[in-house]
Amino acid sequence: MVEAQAFPATLTDTVVQLLPALAQGQLHAPSAPFDVHQDGRLLRIPVRTYYHRKQLLACTRLPGDAGVLALCLGTRHHDGHLREACVKQLLLQERAWTVPFVVHLCGEYVLEIVEVIGAALLAWNTEALARYLRENPAYVDTLERRSISYWSCYYRGQYPVREDYPGCRTMAALRAVQQLTPR
């Protein structure tokens, strides 16, 4: 039940109820987590999950928080297409606790996912996003370095000017949100 550590304590009961359904057909346990803070609480979010695709998709259709929790965990799935499908739906949510799952994808290598997030970012949950980014400055620095590394390794030919690379544009948008003054 390592997944419960990825969410606020108020959601623990919902996570505990959701996990047996997700675990059916699971290839193996989620991989080692990355640590971030949200509203002063340490979250330990799996780098990758290995749920059976059919089970995960069924759980994302559950009503209320359970379906949104499944979407969050789906953004960590080992299948990039499934991560993209989950983040598209997650960007329609305004729950503050979804922010860490969306932000982490900004530092990943799947360009299509980064483009989806970049297009939606400035209209999405700005206050919660700004608070989260300010609370995790070293983590945001790491995401930015990853984005630059992926550009350098895989996309430099396609985007000769680094600032034109969607990952760098998305990180610049995150940096702008990070600088917003709290209300």
Q: How does this model look, in words?
A:
The chain has helices at about 10-25, 55-60, 65-75, 80-90, 100-105, 110-120, 125-135, 135-155, 165-180, and strands spanning about 35-40, 40-45. Strands 1-2 form a two-stranded antiparallel ribbon. The mean pLDDT is about 95. The N and C termini lie far apart (about 35 Å). The chain has one domain. A hairpin with a 2-residue loop joins β1 and β2. The chain is built from 9 helices and 2 strands, in the order αββαααααααα. By secondary structure, the protein is mostly helical. α7 (about 125-135) crosses α9. It is globular, with a radius of gyration of 16 Å.
Strand content: 5-15%
Going by helix content, strand content and strand pairing, the class is: mainly alpha
Count of DSSP E strands? Answer: 2
Oligomer: single chain
Count of discrete alpha- or pi-helical segments spanning 4 or more residues: 9
Number of domains: 1
- One letter per element, helices H and strands E, the order comes to HEEHHHHHHHH
Biggest pleated sheet: 2 strands, antiparallel
What value does the average pLDDT take?
94
Rounded to the nearest angstrom, the radius of gyration is: 16 Å
In whole angstroms, the N-to-C terminal distance is 36 Å
The strands making up the biggest β-sheet line up spatially as 1-2
What does the overall shape look like? globular
Helical residues, percent: 55-70%
Poorly predicted sequence stretches spanning 5 or more consecutive residues? none
